[in-house]
Amino acid sequence: MKIYDKLIFELSKPGRKGYELPKTDYAGNALKDIPSNLLRKEAPALPEVTELDVTRHYTNLSNKNFGVDTGFYPLGSCTMKYNPKINEELAAMPGFASLHPLQDEESVQGALELYYNLQQALANIAGLAEFTLNPYAGAHGELTGLMVMRQYHMARGDHKRTRVIVPNSAHGTNPASAMVSGLEVVEVKSRPNGSIDIEDLKPLLDDTIAGIMMTNPNTLGMFETEITEIAKLVHEAGGLLYYDGANLNPMLGKVRPGDMGFDIMHINLHKTFSTPHGGGGPGSGPVGVAEHLRHFLPNPRVVKDAEGRYHVTADSESLGSISTFLGNFGVMMKAYAYILSLGKENIRNVGPMATLNANYIKESLKDDYLLPIEGACKHEFVFDGLKDKSTDVTTLNVAKRLLDYGFHAPTIYFPLLFHESMMIEPTETESLETLDEFIDVMHKVAREARETPEEVKNAPLTTIVRKLDETGAAKNPILTYRAMKEACAK
Amino acid sequence: MSNRYIPHTQVDIDKMLKRIGVSSVDDLYSDIPQEVIFREEYNIPSAMSEIELRRHFQELAGKNRSLTVFAGGGAYDHYSPSTVAHLLQRSEFYTAYTPYQPEISQGTLQYIFEYQSMISELTGMEATNASMYDGATATAEVMFMMVASAKKKNRVLISATVSDRVQNVVKTYAKFHGVDLTVVPEKDGVSDLDAIKKELEAGDVAGVIVPCPNKYGIIEDFTGFADAIHAAKAALAINADPSTLAVLRTPAEWDADVACGDGQSLGMPLQFGGPYLGYISCSKSMLRKMPGRVVGATRDADGKRGYVLTLQAREQHIRREKATSNICSNQSLMALYATIYLALMGPEGMREVNEASAAGAHYLYSRLLETGLFTDPFGKPFLKEFTLHTDLDVAALNRRLLDNGIMGGLDLGNGLVSFAVTEKRTREEIDTLVKLIAEEKK
Amino acid sequence: MSKIVEELRYADSHEWVRLEGDIATVGITDYAQHALGDIVYVDMPEVGDEVTAGEDFGAVESVKAASDLISPVSGEVVEVNEALEDEPGLINQDAFGAWIMKVRVADTAEIDALLDAAAYAKICEE
Lengths: 490, 442, 126
Prior knowledge:
The complex is a heterotrimer of chains A (490), B (442) and C (126). Chain A is of the alpha/beta class and 490 residues long. Chain A has helices at residues 51-62, 85-91, 94-97, 109-126, 138-155, 173-180, 198-201, 227-236, 257-260, 329-365, 395-404, 432-451, 453-457, 470-475, 481-489; strands at residues 130-132, 163-167, 184-188, 209-214, 240-244, 264-266, 287-289, 301-304, 310-313, 381-384, 411-412, 421-424. Chain A has 15 helices and twelve strands. In chain A, the strands form three sheets. A seven-stranded mixed β-sheet of chain A has the order 1-7-6-5-4-2-3, with helices on both faces. In chain A, α6 (173-180) links the parallel β2 and β3 (184-188). Chain B folds into two domains: 68-78 and 347-441, Aspartate Aminotransferase, domain 1 (Alpha-Beta Complex); 82-339, Type I PLP-dependent aspartate aminotransferase-like (Major domain) (Aspartate Aminotransferase, domain 2), CATH 3.40.640. In chain B, α3 runs antiparallel to α11, α5 (106-123) packs parallel to α11 and α11 packs across α13 (427-438). Chains in contact: A-B, A-C, B-C. Chains A and C meet through α14 of A and loops of C.
């Protein structure tokens, strides 16, 4: 196969174009009436290419990518489930795509109905009172949720609650979101199985604590069995419980965060509700709250009146706005389609089948990979590298070798609780046959690590590029085509 | 158990349970306290087939109205070549995760590199990140970035001429994070340099945010801004519509340190407010304080060109609470949208888009003034969006326009109405709008 | 085994100090550069900045780690090692040669409170 290595700029030829606009016949040239000191001196050096150039170029680029549609993606904590195609079709419907966000609400009743219905469906699935769909991503949802937490305390005049408890096993986004929302992070220790150490938690619960951020199941895929006790302790101390919805998938059909005692949560629609990750976004991070926090949600809100009409409103007690308009509406459409496709019957099976898949892989591979935590996991679990530590073959090596065999790598070196973490999450959309193929390859890599370790250490061997120089990239950042040309000229 | 998205047959389940060594799937949940197990039925509709689902969405779409749009306010009805949407449906792009494994993500990494290159061409700045959520949150992050760069200063100025929606988000972020944000009042519809200079005197200002074009559509003249702001050891950030930067003086040419804004104007569907993207570009000196993903070019073990996520030590997964930002993704697919759009349009197309939009806008502007119902309160240069004053009841007018399938100008209050015209609007549509408005005279 | 220079003073956050008159030269130790790996960027203070013992004065970054630089002394920065701007890797080559900043210290007694080579070596072993 021919290796395609061009940048779009390198296809450029002056005079080529990939568009056609209608001719206008307005008198004069409006640009010429603008004072020249307000205009740029030179045109931007954008590529000059034809439509076919563009089509081939980006089709070739797409071939350099691995996606869920290409193969199995056992990426822990990322819930890489199948992205249904009907959702893409529906989200592109002109009857929605052409709507201006500031249209009169009378002219967007269908969009608002969809928005409202999704708010309601998520509230029911989460066991909470109310949702906002405005946040754009999981991290944005976290930030918004923590703002709700602070707004609640501030509205009560309780200004000393400026600290939030975060488990030391949490993902870096949790403490970063806390920092951005103006909260100081207090770490609580995790037990070896990743669960929160209640004895370590108790002394932290004073009147400066705004709340606690948790996932459940935790970062190791294990359920926090003492969650009701934790909720009681935190509530008694005047704090609120925040649920990081990154690990919501195995709970569908089994447990609702609100019922466990959580007051605030975010959901990643791009994880649990099947919307595509898009190579890093756009996602959507709706935030749900318990009844007493309803009014603090960000503006604007979508509400339904007694006559069944939908309105865009602003609440005076709201924390403020966190988005230009109503969030990533196109993503919400896909999540809504997914919920309706599953319906109340099938959505119950999502969590159990995701959990079944994870446990099946775990039990099938624990002969070759070190399982630090025994017991039933939920949607994911963590290996601490290969069981045989005599080979020097690292988790990174195994991950890269999987690429040679056509699988995406698991999440690696997270959580930080183990040196060689390898976090595997299969999701419910994968079949037994796919899991068996993955298990076979994992066994094969373990065998290679024993028999031909150099081959594994040199992996990947078959990808289009291998062992990219990340140090060089960070030392002398080349971030644009212009900089690349200048660097080459030197 | 099986449905079209869940493949498990009973035979599969039995086989898997046997391997695991439990007798039922429920056993895998036996560690959960009984009192929190959810036993009710979910209050959502029953499963729909594709036929039913499509019908339901069509019903909902039937309750919306697609209008001839003459409003902007941060979302513009620009044209996008058919090719963009088609290529975006390549599922190798949209079903990929963040490019953590560069060997099998070169497609994503390369288009982000191209995106960064193109946005840098528009802003004239040396570096651009892989994109942010939207223009408003990007502007809020720029506020943090300027505070982080200035080290011990914690005050940021924002001109009142920045879009109110952007201001609102910046205010929320400032309130919670504890940045001292001062809104500097406008003068004659533009940012007031004298008032900014006065605020700078205190010596505690980390940065200043001004817009171009501003919330009235006015192309602001920033002569003297950078000198005054840099003299006070503060940074200048310009919130700019990237589409207009194809013709307007760039943030770099104004000697700004940072540029930010919303990428929706690069042909993205209006889609009722999202997904769009936010962008941040900056000078090299601010690079290490810029939030978000960044892709860099490098070589692989065989000397082949490749792309990687770089400068990751700035990010939250490493810095945790010491990061400047909590962002850990980008609007990747929308960055691809902008990239393909800009590749198709090229420098000539982007100039034509601006020329055609400006021509239509100036035509509408003249025709509206001719009706005698509007006056121009500012008399300043504009491109595709402009604001007029009227004594008409704007809400009533817009309701009548809506009855005729038109989204009229945005009501900014105090008799101010802003109109936007893009290359998609025809002269006939503009004439119809003017005719309907002129009828208000009777 | 990381190198430790006998005549220097050390902070437990892995910075070293050499005092000459009232000028303290500060860098990071060989142990620290080793732990970080290839250093790609050093965020340095500016000349004229006031630094305080125990507070951060900058940061060092490798590809996948970042570490705050904690000042072992208090005073005014009189010089920074500009060579590190273009070649941060100098720290990897010679951590004790590639100093980061020079500080005019207000109170030289601060230095006495720092660890000597033997005490620092003990910390590295742990």
